Amino acid sequence: MVGNKFQLEDVIEAQQFDRETLNAIFEVAREMELVEKNTPGSQLLKGYLMATLFYEPSTRTRLSFESAMKRLGGEVLTTENAREFSSAAKGETLEDTIRTVEGYSDIIVMRHFESGAARRAATTASIPIINAGDGPGQHPTQALLDAYTIEREIGKLDGIKVGLVGDLAYGRTVRSLAHLLAKYHDVKIYFVSPDVVRMKNDIKDYLTSMGIEWEESADLMDVASKCDVIYQTRIQRERFGERIDLYEEARGKYIVNQDVFNVLQKHAVVMHPLPRLDEITVDVDKDPRAAYFRQAKNGLYIRMALLKLLLLGW
Questions:
Q1: What gap in Å lies between CA 281 and CA 232, rounded to an integer?
Q2: Active-site option among 71, 112, 139, 272
């Protein structure tokens, strides 16, 4: 496919990717590992400008994209907290902001507080849009780096058992990952969460329609002993509004600690999209099965791959 145009114009949601495209992106990500390790000062994207438009705070995702662009020789225009400091605060529509910013850049990476905002941006823009998270909607580049990490750590994506733990109602990372896992064969997903943040029916229905077996469980220890991957998430206080009582009730119910690691299989891994609060105790960080910082590093390679593909093609 080298030299061909990348088949996607934007990256908006996990459903866009079929297995073949995923495998090809993962191949490019592996090449990017070599680029990052061996050739400081790659000039692949020299002359290209990426704008980051973040209406919700983010350190990790924004830095990851900016690092990816700079490691490929590109330049970055950055805005964090666009919601408070930009024309949005004066009432400008998202569409007008996108039309303006695309005049200054070659690709836009956007995080927004409203589900569906990335699709609106992509409909408006004539340059590629990458969704870096839209409210409780999706976070497709996180799902890609998660799937890439599972493949690197476990060696396969078919025939795996995955436990999704924590905030499954508002956690866009787990929603997006469930969509990607549905592309693979013989996958089983366990949902472990407090009642107030259970996985929503749209994802359960989608998994059922794709022939993916899923099960809800209240027993983290039991699930941890069966799974290849435990994917822990933080309970997101910002999604609870005034209901601090519900937040406090949900938080701290499922903690991944040494007891959980003791029942994990030898080959299994624990993942987390980060940032973590106290839902994974720091004493397990040294265990080789704690994969979350390797997972974060993989985000750099996946985002380098996507920038290269969207701007230059295969």
A1: 11
A2: 139
C-alpha angle 15/200/240, rounded to 5°?
A: 115
Q: Is 90 a catalytic residue?
A: yes
For 127-146, what is each residue's pLDDT tens digit?
Answer: 999 999 998 788 999 999 99
Assess whether 183 carries a catalytic annotation.
no
Q: Give the mean pLDDT of 97-124.
A: 96
The residue annotated as part of the active site, out of 5, 19, 46, 60, is: 60
| pTM score, whole prediction | 0.93
Q: Which of 62, 111, 152, 251 is catalytic?
A: 111
Average pLDDT over residues 270-292: 96
Structure tokens at 154: 């476990």
- Tell me, yes or no, if 52 is annotated catalytic: no
The three-point CA angle 52-58-62 to 5° equals 40
Helix axes 140-154, 292-312, angle to 10 degrees: 120
Q: Is the dihedral of CA 98, 100, 103, 109 positive or negative?
A: negative
